[in-house]
Amino acid sequence: MLEFTYSNELSPQVISTLIIVFFLALVFIIAGIKVKKLDPNQTPKGFLLVSIMAVEMFNKLIRSYMKEKQFRFFAPYLFTIITFLAFANTISLFGLTPPLSNIGVAFSFSVMTFLVLKIAEMRFIGIKGKIDGLLGPVKPIAPLMLPINLIGEVSTPFSMGLRLFVNLMAGSVMAAMVYAVLHWTAGIIAGVMLHVIFDIFFGLIQAFVFFMLSVVSISMASDA
Prior knowledge:
The structure is a single chain. By secondary structure, this protein is mainly alpha-helical. The chain has one domain (12-88, 101-218). Helices cover 78% and strands 0% of the residues. It is flat and about 65 Å long.
């Protein structure tokens, strides 16, 4: 008999994603409320001070790669990306499944990056400028450059999403190999060290690498 279902169970990766999104939304809302209530004559403290320092550091970094118009348009997106990835790549420390261990979630970042790059191109260089870029500066070899540049249009965001998934998978495989080879007592000790390295150090590095690749790609795509 045919069975019709209207809903399926959410995967652990999707559940982790929803938890991170809810948590970050709550943190951002609280920070926004505190900023609105902040007295300009008083020095911020605690959570608000940390939030302001993080945003200031982020702004200084982005402004060194982007013009002011690009910065104002893309800074909120980029800040959201690096914050989400920082939590997504380290959430296994809290017993949850990393969202990017699902290749579908990782490739969603490829699709999102592709769309953002197209928005940057259309907004800042226009259709004519984009077509000229695809054809290249030397018109006689434009038919040769066009397919090469079209491949590059897709390969850049695709490789960025694939990098997120592969690096996370490689860390998990290496940790599992250590657990299998070592005695259980030594495996526990090594496992703690590996979790610190892969979940915190490498996880944050991968978040920063994806963030910087996004910044550079958007800057190049919107450079008129």
